[in-house]
Amino acid sequence: MKPIIQLIVAASATIAFATSAIAAEAPDALVKRISADVIETVKTDKDIQAGNRKKIMDLVNSKILPHVDTQKMTQQAAGRFWPQATPEQQKALTREFTTKLVYTYSGALSTITNETVEFKPMVAEPGATDVEVRSLVKSARREPIILNYRLSQGPQGWKIYDLNVLGAWLVEANKSSFTSEINKTGIDGLIKKLTEQNQQLANKPVKAPK
Fold first, then answer.
1. pLDDT band at 88; cut points 50, 70, 90
2. 12 lies in a domain?
3. What's residue 207's pLDDT?
């Protein structure tokens, strides 16, 4: 076998193995790994703790977003209006909603100090493709915070599509505002409003000055 062909075969085998490993990772194991990785990164990076937006955004984009099904999250928030949107509108809505989520929750990362996460045993039927992973974020400064995840399994493995913080699911919390805005200004109006909100968030400091 020629060297170049050997290289292609080896690369193909490596990709296939990596894809299989991702698909085989259990949903609770995935969430635990992401949480540990993100918390450890923040605790050891003084720039993130100081509110460095670029580093926080890089962290979110590299370690969190690849494991989030942003289209499904946006689709569920849009509800019955999603099929009415054109492919271009769906793409723009997903992009702006994802950007809003990144801006909104990136500030929380810079506040991490000595937090730990306790995961509850996952309860799911054998072969289930939609599960909930439950956890508590513990800190010496405040009461534990409920943080639960909904994940679904697809060709790329398990992906998060909803979060529950203190009893409120993220998708449901945005669904009513999406519905209200679409009823008033249409889908393009909602996209415009999200874009404006993102511009405001982009100009807002990640951490409030002391």
1. very high
2. no
3. 62
Mean pLDDT over 183-200 rounds to 96
Distance, in Å, from the CA atom of 187 to the CA atom of 85, rounded to the nearest integer, reads 7
So what's the pLDDT on residue 3?
A: 39
What 3-state class would DSSP assign to 8?
A: helix
Q: Would you say the C-alpha torsion 136, 142, 143, 145 has a positive or negative sign? A: negative
In a domain, 131, yes or no: yes
Please indicate, yes or no, if residue 180 is contained in any of the structural domains. yes
* Mean pLDDT for all residues in the chain: 85
Query: What is the domain extent for residue 172?
Result: 27-202
Q: Is it the case that residue 159 has pLDDT exceeding 80?
A: yes
Cα angle at 179 between 101 and 70, to 5 degrees?
A: 30
Query: CA dist 22 to 12, 30, 124, 179, 201, Å?
Result: 15, 9, 19, 35, 33
pLDDT in tens, 17-58: 333 444 579 999 999 999 999 999 998 999 988 888 889 989
Q: Is 141 exposed, middle or buried (0-12, 13-18, 19+ CB in 10 A)?
A: exposed
CA 76/CA 169 separation, integer angstroms: 12
Domain total in the chain: 1
Dist. CA 143–CA 155, nearest whole Å: 38
CATH of the domain at 116: 3.10.450.710
CA dist 178 and 72 (Å) reads: 15
For residue 6, being part of any structural domain is answered with no
